[in-house]
Amino acid sequence: MTDAPRQSSSSSSSFFRRPSFVQPFQALYFLMIQRGNPHPRKKVAVVGSGVAGIGALWALNRSPHDVYIFEAADRLGGHANTVEFTRGKYKTLVDAGFMVMNEATYPNFLNFLRRMKVETAPTEMSFSVSRDQGRFEWASLNRDAFFCQRSNYFSPRMWRLVFDIWRFDKFALDVLRAEKPTEETIGEYLEREGYSTKFKDDYLTPITASLWNTSPEKCALDFPVATLIRFMWNHHFLASTSKNPQWLTLNSGSKSYIDAVMKGFPSNHVRLNSKVISITPERDGRLRLHTLHPTGGKSEVFDHVILATHGDQALSIIRDSATEAEDSILRSFQTSTNEVFLHSDLSLMPERYEAWTSFNYLSRSSPMTGSGHIDQVCLTYNMNILQEIPRAAFGDVLVTLNPLHKPDPKTIQGRYTYRHTIFNKSVLAAQERLPEIQNTRGISYAGAWTRQGTHEDGFSSGLRVAVEHLGANIPFEFEESTLARGGRPRYSLWDYVIRFLIWLVQVLFLAVIDKIAGGLTTTRRRLVSRVGAKGTALNGRVKVHEKDL
């Protein structure tokens, strides 16, 4: 086994320096294209080096503008964070942030990668749920994995879950076909349509929380149902309605596209460890950036600023001079802080090996309420699967977001913190109003938070502001990924046949299944209640548990 391909992590000046013979030709090129250009040469600051900032920088790199990039951290990339994993004499690169993309809904980002000759590799997208240390588990790989708990073949609740998954896959698209857009939340939709608690807790909530990297109570039930369903439809997550697209990873890690963009960019235009704390307007209409860095504070004047930060960070930066519209719009964008560990602790994987997938959702219920209430969740990415890292050489390579417990310290090889936008109804309303403040006062806003939160959304937002606000040109046609499969789904005759059969099952059999499951659950709860009242416990847990049926 040889070392995986590696990119140098050095940020020395030679990494950014343009060859001297290029500069005169570049100056002549900029002079030629500036004639008749409605966007005169400007001094531009890109604040934030995540995917949105890198996208804007790449688009502006071939423009006449004088571009600088500011980053509060000591590295570029934001969530594009490629780190080293070692085991004995072996070393490999692991992505501990952005990991995967697909061919269907990442058109601009993939076009960019092809232009930059950054190589990708196919990967497996699979998902599992594990509750309370394996008391209930399923995985999406195949039928055997879905019923990795053989007792679930005889569980009325499990079969109700299967039925609800099929029903959701076939009927959820009605929301997108409606003549008038709905403002209904997921919770309201599930209640109105009569979906089971098991479907909510063990299927839709885990998927929603995993997609947006946040806790279920912060996003799942308050999230607009139309947005979720469109996202799932675009990404082919409505499994029974379409063929899944090919999912991809980056051969040399996500850092490889950062390196490709920064190759040749002047080092004195890269400001690492420089936190932008505020922006104040000058009398001539320009903007003064105030920064903090290890050696003190500094300020610099720019003609245009692209705030490629999170929305709440953008508001913090402009707060002293923010207009009423800027304040009311940007205050809707809130973020959650998420902790990520690179480790090898298998206690943060499903109990059953058959349930091991690329994305593994684990939850823990309250000891007193049992499976009725989820207290804590985490998501473990199996990098052996996602990046095809061989277990024989490296053992188990895992990345866990917000672990249920801290991994065994002996297995930890990295610890990182990221922020993710909390998506809810107020965020979507604020997104509709963003054009009111875009490119006003010489400030543009970019980031995944301006759309649906994906890496593609972040990259595309950076391209968009560079092109629309500063006249940049990109070498391919910009595509709108949020409507990747069109605006309105269509049903085939076969779809209508299946929908009728599902409706028939719901009318004739569902009430009977629910009655059986409900009766058995009530009996078990009474048993647990009696045992709990007698104080019979072991290590803080009641000996007789209410198991999922």
From TrEMBL:
Coiled-coil ranges per UniProt: none
Matches recorded under InterPro entries: Amino_oxidase, FAD/NAD-bd_sf, Zeta_carotene_desat/Oxidored
Domain Amine oxidase per the UniProt entry, residue ranges: 52-468
GO molecular function: oxidoreductase activity
Pfam families: Amino_oxidase (PF01593)
Gene3D superfamilies (UniProt xref): 3.90.660.10, FAD/NAD(P)-binding domain, Guanine Nucleotide Dissociation Inhibitor, domain 1
Full protein name: Podospora anserina S mat+ genomic DNA chromosome 3, supercontig 2
